[in-house]
UniProtKB/TrEMBL annotation:
<protein>
    <submittedName>
        <fullName>Uncharacterized protein</fullName>
    </submittedName>
</protein>
<dbReference type="Pfam" id="PF00653">
    <property type="entry name" value="BIR"/>
</dbReference>
<keyword id="KW-0862">Zinc</keyword>
<dbReference type="InterPro" id="IPR001370">
    <property type="entry name" value="BIR_rpt"/>
</dbReference>
<dbReference type="GO" id="GO:0046872">
    <property type="term" value="F:metal ion binding"/>
</dbReference>
<keyword id="KW-0479">Metal-binding</keyword>
<dbReference type="InterPro" id="IPR051190">
    <property type="entry name" value="Baculoviral_IAP"/>
</dbReference>
Length: 178
């Protein structure tokens, strides 16, 4: 009976802990007071190709003669730099957040279309030379939604791992109590 009570208490603590962490993530992504424009302001700059281009500092293929996968072409195709010292060949779509690995001969627009056919940027921006204000807001809102979705997935996975760890610890505890 005592172990059951401890388990229920642990689940409640896990639930409240994850709710608190989830709220913190959402509050960082979306203004909980309903001021969506403030949150969109963080994501709107990514609509501007020059903003995306500025994320590529010293892109590795800009130095490669004849490379098709330049920082300019990546930015035009909706990508931002996602490089790390361990992975200097990656860039992510600023809107669907899909990260891809690149080779010098890759065509960023074609790769984006083939790997992310449901990306809103692929659907509207790659086909239009000029975006409307509405297109810009749709892209920023889509980025915000994908950003929140990714954070919530991570929170869910963290919670699941935490729950598994709590169950394992409780199992060990019940074995020692027997």
């Amino acid at each position: 009976m005592e172990v059951t009570g401890m388990l229920m208490n642990a689940k409640f603590i896990l639930l409240t802990s994850n709710i608190g962490r989830g709220r913190a993530i959402l509050e960082a992504s979306v203004d909980m007071n309903g001021d969506l424009m403030k949150s969109l302001d963080v994501h709107l700059p990514y609509v501007d190709v020059n903003y995306r281009l500025a994320t590529f500092q010293d892109w590795i293929f800009d130095r490669s003669e004849g490379a098709r996968c330049t920082s300019k072409r990546l930015a035009d195709a909706g990508f931002i730099s996602a490089t790390t010292p361990e992975d200097p060949y990656s860039a992510a779509c600023a809107f669907c957040l899909k990260t891809l690995m690149w080779d010098p001969e890759d065509d960023p627009s074609q790769e984006h279309k083939s790997h992310c056919e449901n990306c809103l940027f692929v659907k509207i921006a790659l086909e239009k030379p000029v975006l409307t204000v509405e297109d810009g807001f749709r892209l920023a809102a889509n980025r915000l939604a994908n950003f929140c979705n990714d954070r919530l997935k991570k929170l869910y996975e963290d919670g699941r791992d935490y729950e598994s760890n709590v169950k394992e610890q409780l199992s060990k505890l019940t074995k020692t109590l027997k």
